[in-house]
Write a structure and sequence with these properties.
With 167 residues, the protein is mainly alpha-helical. It has a domain of 77 residues. 34% of the residues lie in helices and 6% in strands. The protein is built from six helices and four strands; from the N terminus they run H-H-E-H-E-H-E-H-H-E. Strands 1-2 form a two-stranded parallel ribbon. It has a two-stranded parallel sheet with strand order 3-4. Helix 3 links the parallel strand 1 and strand 2. Helix 3 packs parallel to helix 4. The chain is globular and about 50 Å long.
Length: 167
């Protein structure tokens, strides 16, 4: 699979377009805006969401969900590789520290493009599923930012454990 991100993300006019959209549309309503920015670094997020930016309120960044990428390129983001706790803590801490008092974090574990949080970051065995789900929810809600809860996440939903295509 080709990486199309350089062709579709962070174009040279993006800031101009976002400021114009904010000025002509968003600023007229009591709404909040969030941009999905897979390659964003904290400095980029501050550029888009800083208190004086007038572009977006927050961004979805992907640092924590792209840790320990799958070695099989055919599987891409559908990842079952274990994540090292120290790497996860560093990724989350980096964003918490960088945006503190200057921008706003969007907090999430998974979405329609990612593995279920309990299966990816916890232990989805019957013995530890509930405990893992509670740990992940507590971690998410104790950080600074707006938590996003993907459907089923509030129940500790896990990945489907299919063993054949017929299932």
């Amino acid at each position: 699979f080709a990486n199309v991100e350089p062709m579709v993300a962070d174009g040279p006019k993006l800031n101009d377009y976002l400021r114009e959209m904010n000025k002509k549309v968003l600023s007229h309503y009591d709404v909040m805006s969030v941009g999905e920015m897979p390659s964003a670094k904290p400095k980029d997020a501050l550029e888009y969401t800083g208190l004086d930016a007038h572009e977006l309120n927050m961004v979805f960044q992907f640092d924590h969900v792209t840790l320990a990428l799958n070695k099989d390129p055919r599987l891409g983001k559908w990842n079952d590789q274990p994540v090292k706790l120290v790497d996860l803590k560093q990724a989350l801490s980096k964003w918490q520290t960088a945006l503190d008092g200057k921008g706003w974090n969007s907090l999430y574990w998974n979405n329609h493009d990612r593995a279920r949080a309990v299966s990816r970051f916890g232990n989805d065995s019957p013995q530890y599923r509930v405990l893992s789900a509670k740990m992940l929810a507590t971690t998410l809600h104790m950080m600074q930012g707006t938590p996003y809860i993907y459907q089923g996440e509030e129940l500790g939903m896990t990945n489907a454990h299919f063993t054949a295509l017929s299932e």
